[in-house]
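Reminder: ligand-aware prediction takes two inputs, not one.
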Amino acid sequence: MAEASTAGGADCAFCGTPIVCTTTLVEVDGSYYCCPNCELAARQPATARRVRRGGGLVLTCTHCGTPIIFSEIMVSTGGRTYCCANCAEVAGRRAAAATAAAR
Ligand SMILES: [Zn+2]
Ligand SMILES: [Zn+2]
Ligand SMILES: [Zn+2]
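Here is what comes back for the chain with zinc ion:
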């Protein structure tokens, strides 16, 4: 059941980010979420909205915009903040691909 490899090729059911890093993966009823932040936002949209309106007290993911409620799994790199290592990894890969394509 807990086999991380079963999520290979899945996208986050909330933010749609391809799941390439399963460190923070959450599975609920056969749906995969990149991290508990997305899982909470999907399950409790009212909470997520309230948090989001909270005057900038809570950060949102630079990549997917999910409110970062579980800050212990947040990743900050290069002045950007991501809800999880998965979003940071995907954003990093896209940046690298764009750089490679620009050559
Ligand atoms: Zn997500
Ligand atoms: Zn995430
Ligand atoms: Zn994200």
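Residues 1-5 have pLDDT under 50 and may be disordered. The first strand starts at residue 26 and ends at 28. We will return to this case in the review session.
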